[in-house]
Known about the structure:
Elements: H1 5-31, H2 37-53, H3 70-110, H4 120-141, H5 152-176, H6 182-188, H7 192-203, H8 210-228, H9 235-262, H10 268-291, H11 304-327, H12 330-351, H13 359-386, H14 390-412, H15 416-425, H16 427-434, H17 436-455
Helix pairs in contact: 1-2, 1-14, 2-3, 3-11, 3-12, 4-10, 4-11, 5-9, 5-10, 6-12, 7-9, 8-13, 11-12, 14-15, 14-17, 16-17
Amino acid sequence: MMLSGKNMRRSHDIFGTYIYLYIDNICTISGNCSSTFVVSLSVSYLTVTAGGLMPGNKLACSSVSPDMNNSTSTLGVDTMVNRQLLLTYLYLLFYVTLSSGVIFYNKWVLSPKYFNFPFPITLTMIHMGFSGAVAFFLIRVLKVVSPVKMTFEIYATCVIPISAFFASSLWFGNTAYLFISVAFIQMLKALMPVATFLMAVICGTDTLRCDVFLNMLLVSVGVVVSSYGEIHFNVVGTLYQFTGIFAEALRLVLTQVLLQKKGLTLNPITSLYYIAPCSFVFLFVPWYLLEQPEMEVSQIQFNFWIFFSNSFAALALNFSIFLVIGRTGAVTIRVAGVLKDWLLIALSTVIFPESTITTLNIIGYAIALCGVVMYNYLKVKDVHAAQLPLDSVAERAVKGLMEKSSDLYASDNGNKSSSLGRSDSGPDTNNDEEAPLISSRILHLGRSQHSNQKSSP
Length: 457
């Protein structure tokens, strides 16, 4: 029996929806926490494939003519998937290059041996002022995105505390460049999962477990070994970096607790629009007390293009993280961050000859990285245990869609009211508790198909 062009397109849409729902559930489970390298690559590949099969996208799967054979359609899908994968890899390369470049750029600007601008608070304030001005221009002038509904209560209880810790993390992190090398800073950043876990336990968003505690202990031992092997160890720089790490960890936990409790979702532009000006105000106080008395205009080497390009690179880094997460997922960008750290450690010895890496540095960092990987594995395991098995989720999605199709068939035979009643009260309530992300998509697809059938002759 031959299918018409409309029925063929409809079958492609249904098939694409099955694949999209199945893969989207995988990405949702894996994208909410860190993972190992293998899991991250799987998620990134499945996400790209899902983008190619999602109904409504102008890809080869949905635009295949009924007269084309299977080999031609398969070739078209493979070509499109290869293009999407290539674009994903380019985004990852763009993120790694920008992230590494901003770190090297900040080190070069602040170091007395190079550009000689030893004012980290001033540099951070320039970044915040530039980012806030660009965000204001994009929202208020170009109207690229709309600002969220912000009340004084939300701003006072959420934005101000988050901005304070955000400004502190940038201030202390940039100050560390004056005392310790880039390579050693990246090794100390392996403590970020430890700091985040401790802050989460203190704030009540996580529980203290023996297996996670042992992994955090392994990470800490690795960092201690790496610090012991550091030739140019500096106590002041190490304390600045530790303080910046814990301030960033507390900012992450507060963002989860405060913003999610209020139901706010901020994209990079709206985040900078609200947080950057507030962070600028917080930085003004320590700048006035610590750096302003030491600044003499006649001795400052101020180059407009240097600071403009440095601020623009920092702003572009925020947008690149958003693009990479949107195309791959949070898992992939964290794995890319680990690879970036190894790249930074290796390149820092070439760009900055004073950075010396010892064997004990590498051994300690490798031990810490093993603890981070094990911690990521435990988090992924916990998330999978808290979710439905993927097969049952996919089966429920398909079953719900088939029930909706049968209801639509019944509605065409004169039982429209009863079929719509079953679809709104039955599958929706069952799926809301177990798979809320799937239920809304199924109902949306069912309603769109129903409207298409009513409008078609």
